[in-house]
Design brief:
This protein has about 170 residues and is α+β, with helices and mostly antiparallel strands. The structure holds inosine-5'-diphosphate and magnesium ion.
C-alpha cells in the first residue's frame, strides 16, 4: 500500500445543511492529511469537466444543476485534497455508496444523503474513485500553488511581470 491523494468535494447540500464540521470530523477518523482546501463557485464548464464521464446519463441535467448549486441556491462547494496511505479507499468507505439508500447508515452519504423525487442522488460529498481520476480531478480543482506539497510535476510560466505555476 502506498501514499496517494484523493479529492473530496463538500457538495452544495452539505454546505446548505451546515454539515462541514461533521464531514471533516468523520473524515479525520481516516488519519489522512489535508494538503489542500478552499471554497469554489462552480460554473457549468467546471461541472462538465468534473463529470465528463456522466454527460450521457439521463440524470446529468439534474446533476449539473446540483453541483452548480441551482438546486440549493448555494453556488459554493468546498474541495479538499486528502493524502496518505490508501487514501482513496479510506475516504470512499467513510463517504459510503453512491446511492444514499444503499450506503451504510453510519457513512456520510448514508447519514445525510437522500434521493430526490427527480431520482437524483443528493449525496453530500464527492470522493475520487481511482488514482487516475484523483489526479485528473485534483489538477482540475487546484493549482500547484494551492497544495502544500509537490504532488504532481508542475512548471513556472513567465509572462513579462507575471510568473505562475501550472501543472505540466
Ligand atoms: P460517485 O460520486 O460515488 O463516484 P458517480 O458514478 O461518479 O458516483 O456519479 C457522480 C454523482 O452523480 C453521484 O455522486 C450522484 O450524485 C449522481 N449519480 C450517480 N449515479 C446516479 C444515478 O443512478 N441516479 C441519480 N444520481 C446519480
Ligand atoms: Mg465518481
Amino acid at each position: 500500500m502506498s501514499n496517494e491523494a484523493t479529492l473530496v468535494i463538500i457538495k452544495p447540500d452539505g454546505l446548505k445543511k451546515s454539515l462541514t464540521g461533521n464531514i471533516l470530523s468523520r473524515l479525520s477518523e481516516s488519519k489522512l492529511k489535508i494538503i489542500g482546501a478552499k471554497m469554489v463557485k462552480v460554473d457549468i464548464e467546471l461541472a462538465n469537466k468534473h463529470y465528463h464521464h456522466l454527460q450521457k446519463e439521463p440524470f446529468y441535467p439534474e446533476l449539473a444543476k446540483y453541483i452548480t448549486g441551482q438546486l440549493h441556491g448555494e453556488n459554493r462547494v468546498m474541495p479538499l485534497v486528502y493524502w496518505g496511505e490508501d487514501a482513496i479507499k479510506k475516504v470512499r468507505a467513510i463517504a459510503g455508496a453512491t446511492n444514499p439508500e444503499q450506503a451504510e447508515p453510519i457513512s456520510i452519504r448514508g447519514a445525510y444523503g437522500r434521493i430526490l423525487t427527480t431520482g437524483l442522488f443528493e449525496n453530500v460529498i464527492h470522493a475520487s474513485s481511482s488514482v487516475e481520476e484523483a489526479e485528473r480531478e485534483i489538477k482540475l480543482w487546484f493549482g500547484p500553488g494551492e497544495i502544500v506539497c509537490k504532488l504532481y510535476p508542475s512548471k513556472k510560466t513567465s509572462e513579462e511581470n507575471d510568473s505562475k505555476e501550472i501543472w505540466v
